[in-house]
Specification:
It is a single chain. With about 220 residues, the protein is α+β, with helices and mostly antiparallel strands. It has one domain (about 5-220). It contains seven helices and eleven strands. The chain has a seven-stranded antiparallel sheet with strand order 1-9-8-5-4-3-2, with helices on both faces. The protein has a two-stranded antiparallel sheet with strand order 6-7. It has a two-stranded parallel ribbon with strand order 10-11. The protein is globular and about 50 Å long. It starts with a strand and ends with a strand.
Length: about 220
Amino acid sequence: MNKIQLTEHGWTRQNIWEGCILASIAHAIFIANAPDFAYEHSWDGDNYSTNDGQGSRGTLTFGQEFYVAGFRNERFALNPVEAKQYFIEAPDLVQEMAEQETLQYLLDEVDGEVRPVVTTVLWESDERVFSSHPYDIMMERGADLLEVQASGYESALEYWEEYYELTEEQLALVEKLYLLKLKDPIRRILLTEADIQSINGNDVEGIEESKCSFSEIGIEWPST
């Protein structure tokens, strides 16, 4: 499958990573009172996964200077193409990361065999971003899951504020934690008692889900 270079702004590794971190922080605060939505965003090391609960899911793997992303929209997955074919024109390093990491989060059973199923893919190499499909089709086939993350800080923050109905205190905490993560991505951050009060979690299961989601991005609740 031929690669197509994206000319749209916002899809670079750094911008996408920042957008995924912002989304994850807002999500971790929200699910403290809404654990049923814990599936929407998650991290496993350098792998970020998102799921809209309506038939679309995707995983991104962040390398030092590039990333690989695979998406599946169930409406387009009835007769899936071999996942490797989507990366046929990608550099070897991208193909290796896709096979070893990204695609392992997109497995499904097809004709009695468990294998990765995607409907569009995306990657960055040599400071250029490529997809297996033209932009509009890429979005339709699942990459719309990243539309907010790629939109830039102000736009994304406004979106998550409305989507999660964040209070002023929660929104301020999102901004605080986001800036701390950008300043030192590998630093472990410990929430303060004031932070916990801002989260205002009242659901036992939700608090546990929130702790888990925060921990995945290096942010810890204080020990009780």
